[in-house]
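Residues pack. Consider this:
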Amino acid sequence: FQVFRQGSLLLGAVLLANSGLGRAMIGSFELYLYLGTTLSFFWVNGLMQGFLRFGSKLESALEKQQFYQGAYLFLLLAASILAVSLHYFGEGTIAELLSIGIRLPLLDLYAIYLLLHLPAFLAEHYLLLEKRSFLLRQYAGYQFGGYLMALAIPVFSGGGIAQVFQGLIVWSMGKHLFLLRLFFWKKTLSLDLEQQRSWLIVSLPLVAYALIGGVHDSFDSWLVNRAFGGDPEIFALYRYGARELPVVMVLSAALSTAMIPVLTQKGKEGHAMLKARATQLMHLLFPLSVFLLLSSDYWFPLLFSETFRDSIPIFNTLVLVLLSRLLFPQAVMIALGQQKTMLKVAVVELLLNMSLSMILVRYWGLQGIIASTLIAYLFEKITYMVLLYKGHGIAPKTYHNWKVWTIYSAITLLVYAYRSL
């Protein structure tokens, strides 16, 4: 499902880049998406993780029904508050907060989209909890095809961003109706407020962790607007260049998540399994990234059109995030129950990223912002490794293949240096 979701976002960007809308209009669309992500990602992500953890402990059908229906009403309420707030504060105030140089005249239309879209995140998590894999695959198909159609039909019929949002509203309404059918079709409304309180208590630390992680992208996007006068064309160049390869992000996150229960149950044996599987992933992703670095001048304009050729140096720099993605000490930390320590490290990493970004953007422009993120990510992973060794006696070599990683990293950095000449 995540591959389909990320794939639809990437192909959607390709469709817009080749639609003839122009960088300024595409940049304004990206600004709306940035706004929605900034205001909702952290609490939606944290609540959904808490939804999985709390919902997996429920046994009776009545408890589950009460929990699902209550969760929907809570998310609908939260999304409604967000939508009303966007309408109340208005385009001028929002534009000032985001440091952008244009107004956002479609804010009310976008608020309707968020109102329908945000509660629908419950659908895939419900299907996961209930182990309804066939229906989840079907829903993934709708997620993928519906999103692309919502973008393609308006823009290739001569419409603009307003028509795109209308298409997204129709697509989100379909997801919302599917969710209502899952939770309320032929079922009486039954709520347990104590359940919802317990769910929120479980979710709050996860919301805080997601907030820290989400601030990275939001701050970087804000800094782009701040440093370049809120120019939507510059913002579009940054957003199109700063697109991490979906396959890297999805596979690395999937391996980290999948190894947590193994590491928890098997200890040292689990460390060896993590090392072996991470090495396999290196053999796949490093050569792919090097190939994309060498050939980005050819495939990037074909994919995103000549309009975004200037985004290539930004993309090439972001490829280096692979060096930190393929370090997995966080999985070992979680297996040991070190979430509080991770939260403290994440705060320091965030402050480091923000400080470096404000310094390097002056000397290296948009690439300086990306470089700051890469340095901060590496700092986080290396700090975890040091803490594991000093606090638990777990040497990095037990769960990480330094030889393979070092060789591949050196090759990748050399190719990047060659491409930057």
Q: What stands out?
A: The radius of gyration is 22 Å. Residues 339-392 form the longest helix (54 residues). The mean pLDDT is 86. The chain has 16 helices and no strands.
